[in-house]
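User: Show me a protein chain along with its predicted structure.
Assistant: Here is one chain, sequence first, then structure tokens.
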Amino acid sequence: MAKQKRGRKLDGWLILDKPQGITSTQAVNKVKRALDAQKAGHGGTLDPLATGILPIALGNATKTVPYVMDGTKLYHFTIRFGEARDTDDAEGAVTAASDARPTDEQIQAALPAFRGNIMQIPPAFSAIKVDGERAYDLARAGAPPELPPRPAQVDRFELIGRPDADTAEFEVESGKGVYMRSLARDLARACGTVGHIVVLRRLRVGPFLENMAVGMDTILDPSHTPGALAELVRPLETALDDIPALALTAVEAHALSQGQAINLVDLMGRIPDAANPDEGLVRVLAAGRVLALARLSDGWLKPERLIQQFS
């Protein structure tokens, strides 16, 4: 006999404005308890120091997390020049110091090297696994790992403010897996000094924007029942809005849900113009609901990820 899952079955997204001082996992757990939800996960880790958009997936929405994490991210951060920290942010211990302070012109001259497809060394205090252990666990134990450079896509990196000689404010638009702490560390070095992040805020993750976010105070307000909070949950489909939609008949939907591919000839006239015929991704609709994500490949529609059971 299957064990009854605790909590209510909720499918969708709650867009949290994560406060400073807690981990993403702690934030998810607080939301899960407040909503009395069976299942929850998040779409992209934020450091404890960071605030801003933390998309929290509930129920079947957890199946769409990888597609949200592939989306564009928008960040604002502030660098403090003159001190390097072992965590590359204000929470770490000082490891080096410099009296050098870059001019605006020096910063602007250094920025182009950090735009486009670059190679980036992640912070030692990160969740990357090294021989089965998290890098941050090794670093905390006094043995920070030597992490190899990784590809990173930085679409935009702009200087947007200069409050004083010690600090500078930036806006970054990037793909997944880009570490803002590494950008700050490496930019400071390129400017002939050292530095670390003191303020970091995420304003966008894929289709989720800052004006959609709910504060933790609202989530934890004892006057709000789980039922009332559930009204803040956005539909599962919200995460997939930028993926072209393809509607199937009941027969086709049943076949796809069983893992069968569908010949694209049978779908002529329904395939969206925005879908790439060469390995393009589509969200498959059945009876007005998102059934699955599927790929156009070699003349076939091939199921990639079943989101909800076909009924």
